[in-house]
Amino acid sequence: MTATLPADVAATTALLAAGGYVADAALATTVHLALRMGRPLFLEGEPGTGKTEIAKVLAAQLPRGLVRLQCYDGLDLSAAAYEWNHARQLMAIRMAEARGETANLEASIYERRYLEARPLLRALEGEPSVLLIDELDRADEPFEAFLLEVLSDFQITVPELGTIHAATPPVVIITSNRTREVHDAIRRRCLYHWVDYPDAARERAILALRAPQVAETLSAQVVAFVQRLRQGDYYKLPGVAETIDWANALAALDARELEAGAVNATLGVLLKYQDDIAKLRGEEAARLVAEAKEGARA
Q1: How far is CA 71 from CA 18, 75, 106, 137, in A?
Q2: Residue 75: which of 139, 145, 123, 135 has the closest Cα?
Q3: For residues 1 and 39, is the Cβ–Cβ distance under 8 A?
Q4: CB-CB contact of 129 with 67 (8 Å)
Q5: What are 135-151's pLDDT values in tens digits?
Q6: Does pTM top 0.85 for this prediction?
Q7: Hey, which bits of 106-161 come out as E strands?
Q8: What's the rounded mean pLDDT across residues 65-73?
Q9: Fewer Cβ atoms within 10 Å of its own Cβ: the N or the C terminal residue of the chain?
Q10: Structure letter (DSSP) for residue 198
């Protein structure tokens, strides 16, 4: 690993904060250990708790290029790691045949220049990078087997070409929203951390960093409101990104404090399902506003 890595947990906390990410002691410690030990970091938690953001902040602050592999149902090796450029191979075959140079033709069309690198291979071959394997739980379970060689040895084996090693192992961040369980073989190769919703103090600190233009009173009430909302029975609870968006939206409407009318009018910034909005709008929103104001004063 390079000398740009933070020296200790405090330096890691400061590095993340410099990128606008407020980490608690446990998360900062796990990130620090992953960097120092050169181990992939597996982050699991509810959507919107800031898992993906950690990779973005590390890439910006180390600094390294960010290589992102967004996982989805049906993701395969050709989209994730590499793919042979069949059009160029076919053209090379025809040109060789036209010149009468067919000896060793089969071997020559599997040279590295005909291989198209996808995110996993780009992260190994290119400049030092942060490799984000985002929402691994969305990929099919067999895809996880493709990752094992990358995560354990930072290499990819191409049957026709050989093994390609990373010149500098990337910092690897894997995220999962836990829509399904990720296999133990992946977990064993990683350091693990569950990223939970922040407590009120940390969420206020996040707002201070990410939305500094929001008035302090409004910021405290927004956090108190969201913290109480997360204790309710809703289909999709608001994440940190929604808290920041909502505070910015209220500030854009020149709000200085929470008021029931503005809250009801902006619930679509905070919640993303109509059933949740209908459940909160009206008396329940007014109740949470009153509690949030009281809580923010405490």
Answers
A1: 28, 6, 33, 8
A2: 139
A3: no
A4: yes
A5: 999 999 889 998 999 99
A6: yes
A7: 115-117, 129-134, 155-158
A8: 96
A9: C
A10: P
